[in-house]
Amino acid sequence: MKRKNISLLVSLFLVSIAFTAKAQLKDGEIIRIKNVKSGKYAKPANLPAGGQEVNAQVILYTLGEEARMKWKAIAVAGGYFKFQNLETNKFLGVLNRSKEQYGFICQKNEMVPRPMNVTPINNEDLYWKLEKTATGYKLKNKNSGLFAAVEGGGVNNNSKLIQWADQGQADAEWQFETVGTNNSAATGKKVLFDVVLNYIAVSEATRNRIDNGDCRRVFGQVSTELWELDENNEMKTRLRSYNNMSEFVYNQTNFQGPPTAGLSYYQDDRNASANSQMGKVTYNIPEILLKEKKLMLVVKTFLGTRHKDSDLSSFDALRMSEELRSTYILDYRSSRTETIEAITDLANTNQNMNLLNLVIPFSNFARADDTHKLWVKFTCKKN
């Protein structure tokens, strides 16, 4: 094989890893927390016999399958998460609730109300806010306002985690790897199952129903996840796509000059595009899971559009307020169609749009004076 082709394959492989590692978190998801600079993972330090788990320091270590390297992400009010270790059941926090730089990150018990206990409940050092970067996330502590980082920017095993001010350092960036992304353990016949994006349609939401070519210029992402459910209908295992193909059925990061990819909802013939294929992902899944309705498809939609009031006007950029997650329980039908409806939001013109591996500055949306309605139509097909 030519060296150029090998280089291309390696690049594509690295891109696919990045897409997997930088997924946004869901409440209850089991993850590993990976440091961007070192490539190592956060875990509580192993203790000698008889040692106390409370306040055990959190360190970096080479990837392993031990439960100490796995954390449950739990959503907290205000957009924060707390992280509970699967082996110790303790939470990622800051020693002595320090608000100072160099405060050590450790695992702690969560304070809970008890009868006759007059001590104020303060768990804010266990709460972390995710701030998107180009390569992952920063973890900002609610109590201190500082960020999870590595002592001295270390990259070796047993490097200690500390909190530090945001100085753009790579050791303060993290990625989240979902634990359990795998093939199903269910046995029996397997079937190929396609999720096909048929079209994205656009219309002006407030002024009229006339959509020119500019309004149909769509950027952003539509992607899928497929989850096997357990006996309590909780997400158990995120299933791999067939041959690890991309789960992005639409991925347009050119927000300055996006192509005219969308239909005009009221002017174009949508029926003519009902069987079009803008993008597709295939899964190889046990047939029994379809029959027992133990598969949940998650479709994630986060889109923006270009807009122009007239031929003499300059472009505006419009955006959805946040990623929309739509869920569907799959069954044994050979084919089904679904349509997701969304709208761009003028209230978010002063915020960045954080796509995977791309931050679109809010200045691109500052002149927006209208909204667009969006329709995302897709088809599920059993082969």
Describe this structure in words.
- This protein is mostly beta strands and 383 residues long.
- The chain folds into two domains: 21-178, Trefoil (Acidic Fibroblast Growth Factor, subunit A) (Trefoil), CATH 2.80.10.50; 190-382.
- It is built from two helices and 25 strands.
- It has a six-stranded antiparallel β-sheet, with no helix packed on it.
- A hairpin with a 4-residue loop joins β8 and β9 (137-141).
- Residues 1-23 have low confidence and may be disordered.
Note poorly predicted spans: 1-23
Mean pLDDT: 86
Structural class: mainly beta
**Strand count:** 25
Number of domains: 2
Question: How is this fold's topology laid out?
Answer:
Elements: H1 3-21, E1 30-35, E2 41-44, E3 58-61, E4 71-76, E5 80-85, E6 91-94, E7 105-108, E8 128-132, E9 137-141, E10 147-150, E11 161-164, E12 174-178, E13 190-204, E14 218-229, E15 235-238, E16 248-252, E17 263-264, E18 279-286, H2 287-291, E19 295-307, E20 316-319, E21 324-329, E22 335-343, E23 353-355, E24 358-360, E25 372-382
Parallel strand pairs: 13-17
Antiparallel strand pairs: 1-4, 1-12, 2-3, 4-5, 5-8, 6-7, 8-9, 10-11, 13-18, 13-25, 14-15, 14-16, 14-19, 19-20, 19-21, 22-25, 23-24
